[in-house]
Amino acid sequence: MLLGAVLGLHISGLPYLHTLAVLLLGALALLTRYVSLAVLALPLGLAILTVVLPVEAWARFAAWGLLAVALWRHKENIARMLEGIEPRLGEPPPLPSRKQVVCAFMIHPLTVEDFFQSPRFRWARSLITRGIVPRAWVERLSELFRPMKVGELRGVRTVDGREIRCYLISAPLLPHQITSKPELATLRAIQGARLARELGCTVVGLGAFWSVVGEKGRLVQEAVPEIEVTNGGAYTAGTVKAAIPGILAHFESSGRSLREATAAVVGANGVVAFGIARQIAPLVGRLILVGRNLERLEKSAATLRQNLERKGQPVPDIVTTLEIAAIREADLIFSATSDPRPVIFPEHVKPGAWIYDEGVPPDVDESVKKLPGVRVIPGGVVRPPGNMTGNLDLHFGEGAVPACLAETMILAAEGAYERKSLGGETKSENIQFFVERAEALGFRVVD
To answer: Is the pTM of this model over 0.85?
Structure first.
């Protein structure tokens, strides 16, 4: 098509040697090994020549029209070149093979500031900080964007020598937009899964608040059966289960007794939080369950008592409540909500309390860390094997990822798609599977 355009412009009066100069410009651009850049150099060179050389008006219009079409057609390639994630000529194709696993993971900004991590949006930061563009406009505009590939994790290499490449896909919705507009969020998650499939991925994971949309991924999987979808719940629960014994041991080593301690679980209506409650119940003297549905909480508490009695284990005093203020009595607090904003503030925590925060974004406000003797422990953080690199800050520390992302990688590496996490139920055998396979592949839970 481009060669035909060059010929057409030559017929319109562009000197032959100048048309060759345009092709030479494309060849020079190819030295960058970006094929898209070389393709764009051709219509750009033609458009410039029509300005500096005498050609007919229709030819000038055609050249600039061709440039506009080419820029629009390659807009994602341009953005990926800016972000450093566009494949280069000569690199191995990013497709699944015996030595390479390719998966995708859906992310979203936690704050407006996260929008500007991507070079494609960084230019707009000054417009917002200066008040030229209101933040409310940014949020409204973000609802118009379809999912896009904004990053890539490389350098993850399993113990058996396979490389895992993970594309980071984002539709720039903030947490409160995802929770307040479930239909839009589900649509964007479905579009993200389709994009992952087009990129050659075998598995797509739903991260953070994407994990709760579309019946926790179930509707997304039904809409895009060509790719495996997981919400990452099984390995997230597994990392929590693995971390709690160490936390409790450290708590006792500080001179305090678990049997005399009061523990609180925030978000106890959820799968992960109630799993924590089951694990710690026989070890503490009093257990406070905090959630949003009192009837379900009371049923869960009754089930918990019955299971402990049946197993002959100690039964703590169990309290169910909707009031977050009740956790001020707790020595140990475990939190795993899906709230887009912090739910635990200084007035809810007594001095000296230990808090295990599994929330993404964090359930614990930063100001809580200033309380005397309070220790806040982040949960669900995993370090993949190898030397992982990426172009975005995922807010989990250098070289670390959330457990739900790690589950996506493990699922793609193992091909055990029947183990994927969908819906609200998480089977104990799947939790154990991911814990065991993560260990075998070289994934490590961050203490």
So the answer is: no
